[in-house]
Specification:
The complex is a heterodimer of chains A (about 220) and B (about 210). With about 220 residues, chain A is an alpha+beta fold. Chain A has five helices and twelve strands. Chain A has helices at about 10-15, 20-35, 35-55, 65-75, 205-210, and strands at about 105, 110, 115-120, 130-135, 145, 150-155, 160, 165, 170-175, 180-185, 190-195, 200. In chain A, strand 7 (about 160) and strand 8 form a beta hairpin. In chain A, helix 1 (about 10-15) crosses helix 3 (about 35-55) and helix 2 (about 20-35) packs across helix 3. The two termini of chain A are about 30 Å apart. Chain B is mainly α. Chain B has helices spanning about 30-40, 45-65, 70-90, 100-120, 145-155, 160-170, 175-185, 185-205; strands spanning about 5, 10-15. In chain B, strand 1 and strand 2 form a beta hairpin. In chain B, helix 3 crosses helix 4.
Chain lengths: ~220, ~210
């Protein structure tokens, strides 16, 4: 797999520092499962966080803080292994490992050659995260975004006005960009996407779809 | 090994200890000592836990206050973090993350989770807080110790202003516009200095590899 589109420094930093919203974080982590380069960079930044934590000045804890903590240990039970999501609908695509902890819904028809499944985060956080399956040669309606859109190609490939993207590629677009992805002819494209804000479809057909379908 | 740590304000922090002191004085904050303490905690060593608490709890509190929590909220979350550290220390793998990094990610995830809880007002358990990925099949190129040395050198290579910027980006919950106002600089200048600081950090990290 030749990954050419990576996560920006800025987005990796917001992810490492815990300031990236829940939905986009899922896409960034899934990319890091597939991309050793970004995984290393994210680990670097988390290590920066650790080093900076050590350097922070100390704020005095209340007098009984340690006693309270120790009392809680006495009453504590060991940690349970975290629950993993079960039934993942098969697309013939191997999902990144970090995705397995979330609940992936059924794929639903959205438009010809375009099916979509909602990803419910295990934290319960509300987020617009989707898996999309788009047929070979299909074109998505031209659209923009009210805020940012984060996309990870899991399999297949597509092209838009800005470039060509294959498995593992990470695409981050802000509200200034409008694009019309077209899937390559050689096969279906499966993507993971997180939307902040809303998708805005352009053109007569797009506006019609938007009025009929809950995007 | 020098246990002193160079900090954001270029002062040197030394922490008193009693733990593991032989001839050399080492602080709990040093990578080796935190790691050994955390491993001991994983084996149920409460004395080690007390040492770890004394060093990290007040720093975690500072971190959470900078994230915008008040003193009470911060203290409650630190309590939760310290319980999680106790519970999960057994699964800590020193080859994958330095102790401070591991502790930082626990507090970070706890804060993310608490923030969501407030906005959704749903119940939760500590167990739901995401764990740092420690599964062996996520192959890492670098061992944790090596990475920590690299990171320390890279941070040392930043200018004072750049270090403050990096630290602020990590800990503060402030819009760039507020940082700009506080520094008395135009927003564009602050943004470009941030970009420069992170470009330099990345270059230094790559160089020290």
């Amino acid at each position: 797999m030749m990954i050419t589109h990576h996560v920006s420094d800025e987005t990796l930093l917001t992810c490492a520092s815990g300031k990236l919203a829940a939905g986009p974080s899922v896409v960034v982590r899934a990319h890091c499962d597939m991309c050793s380069e970004c995984r290393e960079r994210l680990s670097d930044l988390e290590a920066v966080g650790g080093a900076l934590l050590v350097c922070l000045s100390a704020t005095t804890m209340s007098e009984d803080a340690l006693a309270r903590a120790l009392a809680r240990l006495d009453a504590d039970k060991p940690d349970l292994p975290s629950k993993r999501g079960a039934d993942v609908p098969s697309t013939g695509t191997a999902y990144p490992r970090s995705l397995a902890r979330h609940r992936i819904g059924r794929f639903r028809w959205l438009a010809p050659g375009f099916r979509r499944s909602r990803v419910a985060l295990n934290s319960g956080a509300e987020a617009n995260v989707f898996l999309m399956r788009i047929g070979a040669g299909r074109m998505m309606p031209e659209h923009g975004h009210s805020e940012r859109e984060y996309t990870l190609v899991l399999s297949g490939s597509f092209r838009d006005e800005l470039g060509h993207y294959g498995a593992g590629d990470f695409i981050e677009l802000d509200s200034s960009v409008e694009h019309q992805p077209k899937v390559d002819l050689d096969g279906e494209c499966v993507c993971l996407a997180a939307l902040e804000g809303e998708m805005r479809l352009n053109g007569f057909f797009g506006r019609l779809i938007q009025r009929i379908l809950p995007l | 090994m020098n246990a002193a740590l160079r900090c954001a304000d270029h002062t040197v922090v030394r922490v008193s200890l009693g733990w593991m002191t032989r001839n050399k004085s080492r602080s709990t904050g040093s990578n080796d000592t935190s790691r050994d303490l955390l491993i001991a905690v994983g084996n149920g060593d409460r004395e080690a836990y007390v040492q770890l608490f004394k060093f990290f709890a007040p720093r975690l509190k500072t971190f959470l206050i900078r994230r915008g929590l008040d003193s009470m909220q911060a203290e409650e979350l630190v309590q939760d973090a310290m319980v999680l550290i106790w519970r999960r220390a057994r699964s800590y793998d020193p080859s994958r993350a330095g102790a401070a990094t591991w502790i930082f990610t626990i507090a970070r995830n706890l804060h993310i989770d608490a923030f969501r809880r407030n906005s959704r007002a749903n119940s939760h358990t500590l167990d739901q807080v995401e764990e740092i990925d420690q599964t062996p099949d996520a192959e890492m190129l670098m061992m944790a110790e090596e990475r920590d040395v690299t990171v320390r050198r890279a941070l040392d290579g930043l200018s004072r202003e750049q270090l403050v910027i990096v630290q602020s980006s990590f800990f503060d919950d402030k819009a760039h516009s507020i940082i700009a106002h506080e520094l008395g600089l135009p927003l564009g200048t602050v943004k470009s200095r941030m970009r420069l600081a992170f470009a330099r950090l990345r270059k230094l990290l790559d160089e020290h590899r």
